[in-house]
Amino acid sequence: MKLALKSFERAISIASNLSLNSSDSERQLISFVLADVYRQTSIAYTQLEEFDGAVKTSILAADNFIAVGNNKASALLRLSAGYLLLFKLNKPRDAVPQYATAMKLFEGIGDYESATSSSLATAWSYFYAKEFQQAESL
Question: At what angle do helices 51-67 and 24-47 cross, to 10 degrees?
């Protein structure tokens, strides 16, 4: 798995350098590839139980998926980052913006079931952070 991470990091470096001298359409394609490489990197970090790296790369993947217009993939990655922050890293305050962003993205694509689940996850994050008024306001 460590070898896979090194390969992913190399691919990210190459793609980042390529995007500097690329046209808009080429940058769009590079962003799509980067999004998937970041997603795969996050999975690898999760399997290694290196959750800080998994969160970081999930967020980077989510940002790249937004750049190419894939809001659903971005929302799912924000949910994943929120879960890792809340349950694996015990950082409920840091989980809140991830879940809240996922909720807005799901609402934007009309997936109200997932938006409701994200809202509930946001409330639980506030609860674990002992910010009870914030939790109740959702």
Answer: 160
**Coil, helix or strand at residue 16:** helix
d(CA 96, CA 130): 12
Model-level pTM?
Answer: 0.91
Residue 133: exposure state from Cβ atoms within 10 A (0-12, 13-18, ≥19)? exposed
Name the band, by pLDDT with cuts 50, 70 and 90, for residue 136: confident
The answer to whether residues 118 and 79 touch, using CB atoms and an 8 Å cutoff, is: yes
